[in-house]
């Protein structure tokens, strides 16, 4: 070691160079355990954030519920009307117009589906909102793309 220490200055300099290389190589390897620890910490922080957000916005609960109920109510109404009109059209001599009404209502309910899913997920699966929001965002994007 003294020979190398003389080349690099001192034994201490050589030790620091070796330690630096070792730490650099260790930083390049991202083990499964480190991944699991990071994922666990991310989930824990996300849960804390949701709880803090819910506590901070507690005064808005009534407004949130009103919005959720109105959107879900419109969606449900469109779906139910579509089904009723569809059944009634079976007994008509010329069902064409009623079937068109049914299709329009069904299409409207289908377009609102992702929003309703997001609302239901918020109320019933808040800890999993990240994954659900990604899926819903994808469905909104698909609905927008199909209209063009």
Describe this structure in words.
With 148 residues, this protein is mostly helical. 86% of the residues lie in helices and 0% in strands. It contains six helices and no strands. The chain has helices at 2-8, 11-28, 32-56, 61-90, 96-124, 129-147. The chain starts with a helix and ends with a helix.
How would you summarize this macromolecular structure in one to three sentences?
This protein is an all-alpha fold and 148 residues long. The protein has helices at 2-8, 11-28, 32-56, 61-90, 96-124, 129-147.
Count helical runs: 6
Write the element-wise H/E pattern from the N-terminal end onward: HHHHHH
Structural class: mainly alpha
Helix content: over 70%
Mean pLDDT: 78
| First-residue to last-residue Cα separation | 72 Å
Total strands? 0
User: Major sheet: size, sense and barrel closure?
Assistant: none
State Rg. 29 Å
What is the overall shape? elongated
Percent in strands: under 5%
Low-confidence regions:
none
